[in-house]
Amino acid sequence: MATTYKRQFYPGTSVPAKNRRRYMDPKVKLKKLRDVSMDDVVRIMGHRNPGEDYKSIHPPIEEGKEPDCPIRKLVEPIEGAKHGDRVRYIQFTDSVYFAPISPYQRAWMYLSRYRGVDTGTLSGRQIIEVRERDLEVMAKEMIDNETFDPALTGIRGATVHGHACRLDEHGLMFDGWQRYVWDDQKKEVVYVKDQVAIPLDRRISVGKPAAMSDLKKRTTIFRADGVDMRDDKEVTMYGLRIHKLRTLGGYQPWTVKGE
Amino acid sequence: MSSSSAPAADYAGVPLPEVQIITNRLLSAETTEVVLNALDKIQNVRQINMTGESLPKTINSGPGKGLPNNHSERRVINVGGHEVELRYLVGGFYIELDVEDEETLDKRVEEIKEACNATIEHGYTLTVGRFSKYKPTLHDYRSE
Amino acid sequence: MPKYEDVVDLYDDCGKRIAKDIPLEAISPLRNNAIKKIVSLTKRTCAVNLAGIEKALKTGSMTGGGVIIQGKEIDIPLVENADKIAQIIKESVQVYDGDGTEVKVKSGGKNIVVIVSEDRMNAGIEYTTGFTATAAATTEAIIDTFDIPMYKANMVKAAVWGRYPQTITFQGANVKSILEVPQNNEGAGFALRNIMANHVVSLVNRNAMQGTALSAIFEQCGSYEMGDMIGNFERGGLLALAYEGLNANNMLYSIVKKNGKTGTVGTVIESLMARAIDDGVIRVKETLPSGYKVYTTDDLPKWNAYAATGMVAAVMVNVGAARAAQGVPGTILYYNDLLEHESGLPGVDYGRAEGVGVGMSFFSHSIYGGGGPGLFHGNHVVTRHAKGVVIPAITAANCLDAGTQTFSAEATSGLFKEVFGDMEEFSKPMQYVAAEAKKEKKKL
Lengths: 259, 144, 444
Hints:
Oligomer: heterotrimer
CATH architecture of the largest domain in chain A: Alpha-Beta Complex
Largest sheet of chain A: 4 strands, antiparallel
Strand order of the largest sheet of chain C: 4-5-3-6
CATH superfamily of the largest domain in chain A: Methyl-coenzyme M reductase, gamma subunit
Helix content of chain A: 25-40%
Strand content of chain C: 5-15%
CATH architecture of the largest domain in chain C: Up-down Bundle
Structural class of chain A: alpha+beta
């Protein structure tokens, strides 16, 4: 009988390890912490104006008219691909100061939860490129849910510097382009520029930042002043194990038995 | 000196002590102004250099390139009656002290601590030493 | 007696079994006649773009780079006389009647495909004979047929051969080979790895399964030629060729089928783990306090072949859903990382595929100049490390692109589709290799 395998995602007993597993597991519905309207998400991304038609890069995919390939028959295209949408992006910068998620874990999460995505981790930021109409749905989810913190997560298309900078006096991650500002009356973070710093014609609030005590419970980040990765024996064992097996496999794989 | 790596001020070549203040948070222009004015009152301060994160005047890449950045913290502040143009979100001060004995040094460092405690809300680390160049190096001759 | 105990069933691109109980060696490039023929045709087959030559001569625009040589234009009807030129080329190229030389006129005279005979190839030691013989024969055929005077003959040469020998490559040539010039190969044995993914996409008419197979064949033959598939290393390479490339035991097809409608890279990993456990390739070594199970294997090369198959499946599902090839490096990278975290076992090619994914992400996303994933091949500085296993995944992704790429297969390699598209050795390698494997099985 065929095994029903259930993914285990990631080793570890610590809080960041558990959070990593949670974010990656598509069966876990992530908490929705805010509701930024779809039009505002579209405005912040800046690829089109709300209400404007999607531009296309190729004609719509019509069933039966694709090249004769059995894989195309098995793999259903996402909506935007069916319509021939352009591939557009959203990019998040996550602060090292206990942001809910870090760029690399975003890649794990994206590829575990979404299909039809192209993602890449760079220094301190994570880009996700998807067909436009699918991207908008994903972007809204990711801005609304618990992986986003108004103060420690930035939506930045370019000049993303800030991930490893000290926070400002309001606890906001540094942004040389000041795409978002602190609203001292409402105690909220407000976007005043889109992700490439073109001024928005309206202020878009993304809500109140979480307390540091809360973030330390939610984060995936190991830190010496939080949970030190070395204190999670399973995680460190895993790193050493993979390093060893890659090395042995790279030498004489046929001699590696039961390691 | 024309080289950017040269010392910030002409100097006789003697390593005077510096007090390095690294703030736990990056300071707003307003706080920077308050801190500097508090430090300005302390005697024997020869010069203060600041570091931080750069705030560009215009958007320097992407589709918005060339647009004014309009960063609220990139502005002119007033220190001891002089106008100073801030181009950084400041996170560090290097205070050079023109002192010749340990006793005066200790006294001034205490005064600096008092000034910082009163003005820097989120804390800082303070170290006494020498952190910046005080005489030209080989690099500066090469770059002439 | 076969050297290896491994036996696989081969399935075609639609998941139908086409060869049962095939010993691993029967798909070895050293034995399988189909693979040998594919390799042989790859070096012996060239396309002459007659319409291109005609246009170049008429306009003086030739050798690429915007060069126009004015004052020596030649207006001659080459396409119209394709049959005649083809006949002269054949007479020059063939050694004797029936030596295997083939010259066929295609697309109403716009192209001529030339297959140079083994006899001619055997008189030299470099695979370039296919190209040089064809190009020289074409040049002579045109000069003779149209009585081109001596002072204009050099235009014919340039229109056919391109700017070579001023350039290392045959820049702007109107004779095309699937292979690059040897000088462009990065090291010993790289010839068959120096084939752009887009070329393969064209050769298989965008069939992702066949593209994976053809790339796997080229790449693993390259591994033999590089000295990588010798002694104890051979079995690992053959297992990867079987499972990843030739859909052994229908693993690739069935994983894609299971995850095609709603699956993600994550669910592909889930399917692969289940399969590897069921097949006894991996087992639990220990369970850690968190409940995390550390898996181990007694057959790491086989696990590698399984992992490589899962990698192509992940690409087919994720990139296939996007119908946009650009996601392939990211999928390769994170698939491997997720798999390593899932299993506690090394990813494809013992970590090298993951490394390639990192480098290729950078090089294929305009951060470093231009270039899309279709331009990549096993000779490229960032993709050469995971030998044999990564290029098939890249080809699969490019097969599944619906038209998002500037550097599409149609743009870079359209001629190959037009000229070689009906050669079943290239367009249906899975069936072709399986049929020969059945014959080889009897000999073993």
